[in-house]
C-alpha cells in the first residue's frame, strides 16, 4: 500500500418533500437526503442524472420517484427497467411495489424473465 487516506463522513442533510411530490408522504417518506431531492428535481426537469453512493443507500428512490411521477401524469407513459440479475430485479420489484402504494393512480408493475408465467408475459407485453 503506497497511500492511505481517510475521508471523514459528512453529516446527513435532509430536506422536506416538495409539494409536487406529496404523494410519497403516504408511504411514510417525509424527508429526503439532499442529494436524493436534487437528483429527483433534476430528473423531473428533464436533466440527465448520475448518482454514485454506496450499496443500499437508496439510489432507487432517485429514479423511481421521477418515473412514477411521470406515470401518474401520463396514462400512455411506460417505463422499462433492465437489471443485470434476477435477484436484483426481484428486489427492486419489491421496493417499487411498496413505493406505488403512495400513489393514487394505477401503476402496473411486473417482472419479465425466464420464470415469468405465460399469462403474466402476455399482460406485461401489452403494457
TrEMBL record:
<dbReference type="GO" id="GO:0005634">
    <property type="term" value="C:nucleus"/>
</dbReference>
<dbReference type="InterPro" id="IPR014001">
    <property type="entry name" value="Helicase_ATP-bd"/>
</dbReference>
<dbReference type="GO" id="GO:0043138">
    <property type="term" value="F:3'-5' DNA helicase activity"/>
</dbReference>
<feature type="domain" description="Helicase ATP-binding">
    <location>
        <begin position="40"/>
        <end position="127"/>
    </location>
</feature>
<dbReference type="Pfam" id="PF00270">
    <property type="entry name" value="DEAD"/>
</dbReference>
<dbReference type="GO" id="GO:0006289">
    <property type="term" value="P:nucleotide-excision repair"/>
</dbReference>
<dbReference type="GO" id="GO:0003676">
    <property type="term" value="F:nucleic acid binding"/>
</dbReference>
<protein>
    <recommendedName>
        <fullName>Helicase ATP-binding domain-containing protein</fullName>
    </recommendedName>
</protein>
<dbReference type="GO" id="GO:0005524">
    <property type="term" value="F:ATP binding"/>
</dbReference>
<dbReference type="InterPro" id="IPR011545">
    <property type="entry name" value="DEAD/DEAH_box_helicase_dom"/>
</dbReference>
<dbReference type="InterPro" id="IPR027417">
    <property type="entry name" value="P-loop_NTPase"/>
</dbReference>
<dbReference type="GO" id="GO:0036297">
    <property type="term" value="P:interstrand cross-link repair"/>
</dbReference>
Amino acid at each position: 500500500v503506497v497511500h492511505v487516506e481517510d475521508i471523514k463522513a459528512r453529516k446527513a442533510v435532509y430536506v422536506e418533500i416538495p409539494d409536487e411530490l406529496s404523494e410519497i408522504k403516504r408511504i411514510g417518506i417525509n424527508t429526503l437526503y439532499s442529494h436524493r431531492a436534487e437528483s429527483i428535481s433534476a430528473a423531473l426537469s428533464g436533466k440527465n442524472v448520475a448518482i454514485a453512493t454506496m450499496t443500499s443507500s437508496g439510489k432507487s428512490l432517485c429514479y423511481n420517484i421521477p418515473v412514477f411521477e411521470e406515470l401518474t401524469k401520463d396514462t400512455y407513459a411506460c417505463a422499462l427497467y433492465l437489471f443485470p440479475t434476477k435477484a436484483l430485479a426481484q428486489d427492486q420489484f419489491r421496493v417499487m411495489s411498496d413505493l406505488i402504494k403512495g400513489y393514487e393512480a394505477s401503476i402496473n408493475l411486473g417482472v419479465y424473465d425466464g420464470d415469468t408465467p405465460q399469462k403474466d408475459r402476455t399482460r406485461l407485453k401489452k403494457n
